[in-house]
Write a structure and sequence with these properties.
This protein has two domains: about 90 residues, Carboxypeptidase-like, regulatory domain (Immunoglobulin-like, Sandwich), CATH 2.60.40.1120; about 150 residues, Jelly Rolls (Sandwich), CATH 2.60.120. The protein is about 10% helix and about 50% strand. The chain is built from two helices and 20 strands.
Length: about 270
């Protein structure tokens, strides 16, 4: 083989290696327990994925700039950040990412059942329009702002499905504090998962066991984790209204939030 051909082969091999750089491994807690559905993404970009039910992950980082930061995060655990350049150096390595549990200080709360008033806030009816996610069952989120000025206890969360071609969808619910009417830190201290098998209509997620109390504005989002159907694209159309209000979306868990007008058809049963 001629020398020029050998040099060309080495060059092409290097190009293929650069194109195919991926990181893979397993995410666990400090006790070596596997952590399912951990968010993995590039900060402020629409590039991300989630670990599977066994904590395993695979993420292509070939087209991500070396200066970017990839974050591993899960509710109830401290996030871990890596610079892409460091990950590319060891891209052939099988990573073991360990997340440390966050310790929360919980104030004592006394509730008298005969003084509780139960009522609903949010959408009274399902909206006549929809917002759709197409094949974004990997950490995409969509939510809405709830205005609130009194101490309330969140009991049940309802959302309306306009249509879906999935037989079932796994969602993760997140509750955020707000800063400048944008989602900020997450309020719920543990993961809230829900599997929906409804093709059209209202769905209810119980929050009673999660002890979430709030005395200011907050934002609730639904994150699509996975969807199952017999084949073809996976899509879900969540109902929304044309009422003046604020809703939010992002295509991956570390992307910047985008605001849009109208309100997702979300409502809450609460007590005070």
């Amino acid at each position: 083989m001629q020398r020029g051909s050998i040099i060309l082969l080495f060059y092409l091999f290097g190009q293929v290696s650069a194109i195919c750089q991926t990181i893979s491994g397993e995410i666990t807690d400090e006790n070596n327990n596997q952590l399912p559905y951990v968010n993995i993404g590039v900060l402020n970009q629409n590039k991300g994925t989630i670990s599977n039910i066994s904590g395993k992950f695979l993420f292509n980082i070939s087209d991500i700039d070396n200066s970017e930061i990839i974050r591993f995060s899960s509710v109830g655990y401290e996030s871990v950040d890596f610079q892409v350049s460091d990950l590319k150096i060891e891209s052939e390595k099988n990573f073991n990412i360990v997340l440390k549990k966050v310790m929360y200080q919980i104030d004592e709360l006394s509730v008298k059942s005969n003084e509780r008033k139960i009522f609903c806030i949010g959408s009274k009816n399902a909206g006549s329009t929809t917002w759709a996610w197409y094949n974004l069952m990997n950490g995409a989120e969509i939510g809405r702002l709830f205005h609130n000025k009194e101490m309330i206890y969140l009991r049940h969360f309802y959302f309306h499905i306009g249509e879906t071609n999935c037989d079932s969808i796994l969602y993760r619910l997140k509750i955020y504090q707000t800063t400048d009417q944008l989602p900020d830190s997450i309020i719920n201290k543990e993961e809230i998962f829900y599997t929906s098998k409804t093709k059209k209509g209202w769905e209810c997620i119980s929050l009673i066991d999660h002890s979430v109390l709030f005395d200011s504005d907050f934002i609730i989002t639904l994150e699509t984790i996975n969807g199952w159907n017999s084949g073809g694209d996976k899509s879900v159309y969540l109902s929304k209204t044309q009422h003046k209000g604020l809703s939010y979306k992002r295509r991956s868990s570390m992307a910047s939030w985008l605001r849009f007008e109208g309100e997702m058809s979300y409502k809450l049963e609460v007590s005070k």
